[in-house]
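User: Hi! I'm working on a homework problem where we have to compare a predicted structure to a textbook description. Could you give me the structure for the chain below?
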Amino acid sequence: MVSQEIRARYDKLKETINHYRMQYHVYDREEIPESARDSLMHELAELERQHPELIAPDSPTQRVAGVPLPQFKKVKHEVAQWSFNDVFSPEEVRDFDTRTKRFLKEHGIHDQTIDYVCELKIDGLKIVFTYEKGVLTTAATRGDGVIGEDVTHNVRTIEAVPLSLSRPIDITVEGEVWMSTKNLDALNKEQERLGKPLYANPRNVAAGSIRQLDPKIAAARKLDVFIYDVAQTSEQFPKTQWEELEYLRELGFKVNHNAELAHGVEDVIAFWEKWKKRGRHQEYWIDGIVLKVNEKKFEDVLGYTGKAPRFAVAFKFPAQQVTTLVEDIVFQVGRTGVITPVAHLRPVSVAGTTVSRATLHNEDEITRLDVRIGDTVILQKAGDVIPDIVQVLTDLRTGKEKKFVWPTRIAECGGDGRIERVPGQAAWRCVDIDSFAVLRRKFHLFVGRSALDIVGCGKKTIDQLLEEGLIQNFDDLFTLTQGDVEGLPGFAEVSAQKLIDAIDRARTTQLSRLITGLSIPHVGEETANLLAQHFKTLGDVESATEEKLNDIGGIGDIVSAAIAAWFRNKDNRALIGRLQKILTIKNDVYRSSAAREVLPLAGQTFVLTGTLSSMSRDEAKEKLRALGADVSSSVSKKTTAVIAGENPGSKFADAQKLGVAILSEKGFLALFK
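Assistant: Happy to help. Predicted structure tokens:
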């Protein structure tokens, strides 16, 4: 059964994508970036994969988009024009390779390694060229895959398109018309001189130029073309895709020279990685690669689905703009007390990394975007650590979205939490500007050696994460992704992943370490160990009364009151609830009352001061606890003895004042005999 929420999301996605695709493919209007449309399409396809019963006949995944414009002559393609399925990651292209091998194996072909031809996916406009007896007769757009638009009069103006071939054959070929970045720059300079709007990208210019009624306009745009496929020919068809490219060159077609023959899927990924780094650093824009099974006999076996070939796929580059959902909006307090709203997002891959945060800058920006919790948004990452939300897709709203209301107080500001708007600015700040310093210190303790001990997450890293608004509460650390961190000073791809791995390892921790890291007033490492000894779980500590806490040797009235008050605070209780969901909290030092009572030092409390020559202080604490003793950080009348090593501190004097027994290191070691 499909829930109403999923069905509603599917219907909204389908309706919205159909609208955007119609605007883009038919009218050359790019209301949202192509990468954002790809992201919506990817989500739709994933829903259909999980719930095949949802698939509707009018789903954008089931047909090639676009219908002919009415002012152009319609042309019926002799060979149906397919669109490629898209993949976006090495994992997805490996899945494609696995499916291809499985399909071939089912049809008696057991090759373990498949050769693929890798070609650049040019960001332009697809055109179908028909030649009769070697002479160009028709050039048409792809249209809906069956009917296209006759644009021969414009295509003939492109010098790279041969008007006649090297021999008089009948052939239909497919290619991409594109504009160079150099010509785009020149065109935009002229547009600027005339006071006209600038063109955003060469793909739109190429599409607009080909669809002009006056061929002089297309001629002036200096368009270019690459031919990459043979749809049909009166000659013998080449046996491989690689031979097909050479066949096209022989006939006089311009073929992109950057294609490579890949021996297996890992070579495909290497080709993709190489060109992903180059991006648009050549005369034409590319948005990915296309890989095709090289052997034509394999292509014939693989055939087509209802909408795309099984033998080829478009392997897209990481998008700079994608769509995702806003799951929450939280506040980040900067070192000057300035408050920045940060959107917590459904994790999504953008520019090659997975991110889960986006800055919303200030109250005015939230109002301008009208962004709400639950909205589908376009996310953009252009080199910044935290991406920006650039657009809300209001068409996808269901009515359940929550409008964000700017508060008058926030807990992160400390004290009474009051905030104020900075005069003459869009920014708000804490009235207590010292709150950021307090927050820093709490995080430094939380990740430190005595608490969760997250290796590689030192004070400098914590400060960066706080400054960028990536974290505000302790549990935020465990929702970070590599993409959230990558780009911070000192963090490239590998170092960012190492930090995330270290944080993931800290998901399993000891109860005493977690309590130490919570920054409960008056609770340090020693008191945390006492609590872990006397309570089995964090929930037990949370529910303990002052009286029960005060019964523990080494914990006095003031500390008991502070612990109980901290756990009564609703924000702290909410934090504990979130941490319990994402952490595995062990307690190896807990012993039941009965178990403790039989140990030789049960009921006794010791305090350590000075330096021991035979062992470290931590080792001494462990030995005492193993015998049932409690170890405290302060001296009181309840203290059994103070163990004094060399150069003892003030605790030695405190013991003398209170009449508490003092043991030398020799006397301490005698306890274990």
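For your comparison, note the following. The longest strand covers residues 321-333. The chain has five domains: 4-62, 86-316, 320-492, 507-590, 593-670. Good luck with the assignment!
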